[in-house]
DNA sequence: AGGTCATATAGATGTCCGTCAATGTAAAAT
DNA sequence: ATTTTACATTGACGGACATCTATATGACCT
């Protein structure tokens, strides 16, 4: 009687720490929290809006300037900026009738660490 | 006659390079390409699958082991693994009747650079 | 050959999301 | 006070997506 086919053996050498994802498997809550920021970045329009603000030193940029740059309607720009603020990637500041948006310093460090493959 | 209200002045000091996003505003194509990978990461289930593979050294992990770990159906696991492969974050390798998935080294460097706020 | 096991694919369903036109709001200008 | 300007909110619509059940594929075992 031959030995039955067994499942491929699980490697449980304590894991060679190939990345910070490796430190320990993500729980449901943790995963949800990380994907909240990732989702906010996962839209071409939002990524371009962010890059335009970043391209001016990550300092406060008027929403009016962002409207000129991409070929989308004003409500859509407003919608996306709100999403970026809600995700903690931008802050909003009202100056008179203008709204200014600023990149949150350090907002990406957590994500960058998550993706820190070695 | 008073001077008309003007838009808040645009800061065009060559941008203080606050992050790699800042180097230049992303074009439509570039943004689309970056969000492809980000979208693949923007689901809690996929992020957890990835983290389980990473937690074993980013080496080949049998799909059967991943099925045990999360409380979702087998087709759903298969679906998500395919998406991660399509995004270039995992590679698939068939061994007999088992499928093994491996984290692609360096798949995240581009993303990490994108998020490299200083 | 027939059966079982691991995984993929197909189809269906409900939910989320990006976009827009229309409208609301609030500040500034006339 | 009325109008204009900047921006947000609402509601509608179409497409994308996560998940499931059911079925197909393909490898191994007897």
Automatic annotation (TrEMBL), chains A, B:
What Pfam families has UniProt attached to this entry? HTH_5 (PF01022)
Tell me the keywords, alphabetical order. Answer: DNA-binding, Transcription, Transcription regulation
- What range does the record give for the signal peptide? none
What protein is this chain from? ArsR family transcriptional regulator
Q: Which residues cross the membrane?
A: none
In this protein, which residues make up the domain named HTH arsR-type?
26-118
* Matching InterPro entries: ArsR-like_HTH (IPR011991), ArsR_HTH (IPR018334), HTH_ArsR_DNA-bd_dom (IPR001845), HTH_MetalResp_TranReg (IPR051081), WH-like_DNA-bd_sf (IPR036388), WH_DNA-bd_sf (IPR036390)
Name the Gene3D superfamilies on file: Winged helix-like DNA-binding domain superfamily/Winged helix DNA-binding domain
User: Where are the coiled-coil regions?
Assistant: none
Q: Which GO terms describe its molecular function?
A: DNA binding; DNA-binding transcription factor activity
